[in-house]
Amino acid sequence: TITHTHTQATEQECVFKIFFSYLSYLYSGRKLFRLVAVSFGLLCILQAALNISLQKLSYFRLFWETLFYTLLTKCFYQYFQQGWVYFRPSFYYISSIKKSWNDSRDDCLQRGADLAIINTKEEQDFTRRFKQLMWIGLTDRTMKGTWKWVDGTLLTKSYWGQGEPNGFEGKKEDCVEINFFDSENSWNDIPCEDQNFWICEKKVAF
After folding, report:
1. Before 191, cis peptide (omega within 30)?
2. In 76-136, where does DSSP find H-type helix?
3. Which residues form the C-type lectin domain (predicted)?
């Protein structure tokens, strides 16, 4: 609502500024006064038309969003039935049992997915909502200190908890979990053999 109102006000201000600047350039004195009086009425009509257009645009957007989620529900009904959660543009599955990082990934692959790859702050915030310790698809097993996602891409934006990664007490901590979910920086490295819940991600193309 705030964004919509701001956009509408900005567009109206722009119309007024351009219109009156043009009148000032062409006319002066009484001619300007008379023309402004007439033009004010025209601008009121223009403003009403603009409001109607924006309202129609809002209805149009609402229509397509409703259609999108209706088709989403119908086309991917089986995913919702199996416990998947949709967060654009992917489906996510959170396990109800614990396994090692490798076994967790195998489970995701069997579901046609993989352990979650977190690319944005929005996705990071989404994974924290579950308030669950769980594996994500990040590891440095191939080369110590070089963190890679399960699709082979290097880690660029991270959300490590304070002091992480650290190889606590000299342990070989090569896999990553969501741990400090009350904080935006919630990642923690632990041994890949530890038992943990996990989150799968299945990207969907429309």
Report:
1. no
2. 77-81, 101-110, 121-128
3. 87-201
- Kindly give, in sequence order, each residue whose CB lies less than 8 Å from that of residue 198, ignoring residues fewer than 6 positions away: 94, 95, 99, 101, 104, 105, 107, 108, 115, 134, 135, 136
Per-residue confidence (pLDDT) for residue 89, from 0 to 100? 82
Backbone φ and ψ of 30, nearest 5°: -65, -35
pTM value > 0.85: no
Query: What amino acid occupies position 44?
Result: C
The partner residues of 80 in beta bridges, in order of sequence, read: none
CA distance 45 to 28: 24
Q: What counts of helices (H) and strands (E) characterise the chain?
A: 5, 8
Tokens 């006064």 sit on residue: 33
In the chain, domain spans: 2-75, 82-203
The CATH T-level fold of domain 82-203 is Mannose-Binding Protein A; Chain A (3.10.100)
Q: How far apart are CA 61 and CA 172, in angstroms?
A: 51
Nearest to 136 by CA among 205, 188, 72, 69: 188
pLDDT at 141 over 80: yes
